[in-house]
Amino acid sequence: MVDRLRPRLDHIEHYVVLADTERSTPGTLGYEALLAAEEDGYAWPSFDENRAAFLCYTSGTTGDPKGVLYSHRSVVLHAMAGGLGGALGFTAFDAIMPCQSLYHATAWGLPFIAAINGCKLVLPCDKMDGASLQSLIHAEGVTFSGGVPTIWTMYLDYLERTGEGTGSLRQLVIGGSAVPRAMAESFQRDHGVAVRQLWGMTETSPMGVIATPTPKLAAEGEAEMDEIIWTRQGRMQFGIELRIIDEDGADLPHDGENSGALLVRGPWVIDSYFRAEQRAVDADGWFDTGDIATIDRFGFMRITDRKKDVIKSGGEWISSIDLENVAVACPGVRIAAVVGIYHPKWEERPLLAIEPHEGSSVSPDDVRAFLEPRIVRWWMPDAIVVTPVPLTATGKIDKKVLRDRYRDHLADAG
Fold first, then answer.
1. CB atoms within 10 A of CB 67
2. In whole angstroms, what is the distance from residue 145 CA to residue 194 CA?
3. Is 317 designated active site?
4. How far apart are CA 98 and CA 107, in angstroms?
5. pLDDT digits (tens, 9 = 90+) for 284-333
6. What are phi and psi of 377, to 5 degrees?
């Protein structure tokens, strides 16, 4: 790929390949060879803590990616908060394996949270299949890992097919999209691995909320605690403030029922996008996340949809996330994605894209029969298609592609 690009990039002076010397191609510099030629020590420079540290880009699932510039101060504060007992709860005995690309909000900040707590760090590189992850977990004594749901769906499928156990693994944190309850229950019941949801954004460095229990929640009983932990994205953490507001900007009650636009504020929340002329926050420092959410009496937040993903059908709202969570529990379904597409009578109707597990055969009729007793009738997707579901580079469902692909799928519907 680089060889094909070189004739067009005459201003590039050096190409550094992230590989050992033997794998480097002529005309390139091997990263490991460059390191080997340098001294082991490094004189860390002194500079203001508010200087730029990293530039990360949003993954662009609903629009063009935008640059988010992190300061050294925000990275350190985020790492300190992330390791707290009420958050990820790390100790020096943990071995952490981030299953996120390092460019995805700096792997959710895990490399820094690990370092600040003295944890071992295990990097899987580009091998995210079940067999490769299993090999690393057992060989390196991994106790904690994190990633988007699709990775752990594949890993769980591998465990079910092979009958193997999870070894030292004791906790998974999952973000990027809602966690299928059936997957969380299976990890807990069959393997003793606690699944915790996490919500955040590139704009929040990315930690926002984490689903860890509290004494008040535990007092409700194990069944109620599991229900909250597995169906909410998480509870408010030190350093992050949350608000939900209605269309007029008025605050909504934290009753778990009223849903509104989710706003966040904190020392590691974006102020403005890279090279943008306007600030990304309002006059009081609140950032509009673009999510629709509820907050319950325990302080747990639940994302009900993205503003751009809410389906408005005949004046009524349909949650694409809730539909996906039900559909992905259907036997044989690996990934479920719901988008709203044009309908001549109802304005929008849901289309459900299903990607089966390898070796499984799932038909639209199978999925429809599974959904019927579990959702209200008017939520039933007007179309169910079995197809590979497109993902972004960070493993999220790419709904832009699905909307474009099926834009006119129901155009002739009566």
1. 13
2. 11
3. yes
4. 6
5. 999 999 888 999 999 999 988 777 777 878 767 788 888 998 999 999 99
6. -60, -40
Look up 38 and say whether it is catalytic: no
Can 312 be counted among the known catalytic residues?
Answer: yes
**Residue 94 · residue 144 · CB < 8 Å:** yes
Residue 58 annotated among the catalytic residues of the structure: yes
Q: Are 215 and 248 in contact, with CB atoms under 8 Å apart?
A: no
The whole-angstrom separation of Cα 120 and Cα 391 is 30
* Partners of residue 173 on adjacent β-strands: 146, 196
Q: Which of 58, 61, 143, 202 is catalytic?
A: 58
- Select the CATH number that applies to the domain covering 52-306 from these four: 3.40.50.12780, 3.20.20.140, 3.90.1300.10, 3.20.20.30: 3.40.50.12780
List phi, psi (to 5°) of 292.
Answer: -105, 130
pLDDT digits (tens, 9 = 90+) for 190-234: 999 999 999 999 999 999 999 999 999 999 999 999 889 988 999
At the topology level of CATH, where does 311-405 sit? Answer: GMP Synthetase; Chain A, domain 3 (3.30.300)
Catalytic residue among 241, 312, 316, 347: 312
Give the active site residue among 317, 345, 347, 378. Answer: 317
Q: What is the dihedral of CA 55, 50, 202, 251, to 10 degrees?
A: -150
Catalytic residue among 199, 203, 348, 355: 203
> For residues 365 and 97, what is the distance between their CA atoms, to the nearest angstrom?
39
